[in-house]
Amino acid sequence: MFTNLITNLERYLHFEEDELAFLIPFMEIRTVKKGEKVMRVGEMANYVYYIDKGLIRFYHEIEGKEHTYKIFREDMWASDYAAFLTRSKSVMNIETLEDTVLIQLHYDHMQKGYERAKAFERFGRKMAEALFLATVQRTVDIMVKSPETRYLELLENDAEMINRVPLKYIASMLGIEPESLSRIRKRTARLHIKA
């Protein structure tokens, strides 16, 4: 069950066998049905999640309208990480878009890992850096790239997601209305046909 997780961890840095043997028992498997909430706004952000199978969506509501911040899929780590680190309440809802298997690590267990070995501290730092850089990149993309460019980059980098996720969530994640995404898809489809 933890094969994918261990492969993912090893991409961050090398762990000795005894370090993995210490960490793995702290990892909890959580199976969540499609459409269920993993976490709600206002709940304590106690976990970081490794997605072993499925899709999850981070979103918040403003005046009754949902705004998708990010969609995470297999082999990704996800959390309301700022709330996780500061021991505060989440500002995001996390919902599954498919039946999903998460492997979650509680904040307290992560701290025990930090106390146990430098490798855990490095892993925590690398995870925080990766999530920070993704947040900065998303902010910059929204500010400087057109919706069409953002869509084409998503199509190029993660076309599978577009086939698995309802287009209204893709549009929201891109910061546009579904009608605008439909126009972009039609326009870019014609360009690819002509090429």
Structure description:
It is built from eight helices and eight strands; from the N terminus they run ααββββββαββααααα. The chain is α+β, with helices and mostly antiparallel strands and 195 residues long. Strand 4 and strand 5 form a beta hairpin. Helix 6 crosses helix 8. The longest helix has 27 residues.
Secondary structure layout plus pairing:
Elements: H1 3-12, H2 17-23, E1 28-32, E2 37-39, E3 47-53, E4 56-62, E5 65-72, E6 77-78, H3 81-86, E7 93-96, E8 100-106, H4 107-116, H5 118-144, H6 147-164, H7 167-174, H8 178-194
Antiparallel strand pairs: 1-8, 2-7, 3-6, 3-8, 4-5, 4-7
Helix pairs in contact: 4-5, 6-8
Low-confidence stretches: none
Largest sheet: 4 strands, antiparallel
Mean pLDDT across residues: 90
Rg (CA only): 18 Å
Number of strands: 8
Structural class: alpha+beta
H/E series: HHEEEEEEHEEHHHHH
Q: Give the CA-based shape.
A: globular
Q: Reading side by side through the largest sheet, how are the strands ordered? A: 1-8-3-6
Quick overview:
The chain has 195 residues and is α+β, with helices and mostly antiparallel strands. It is built from eight helices and eight strands; from the N terminus they run ααββββββαββααααα. The protein is 53% helix and 22% strand.
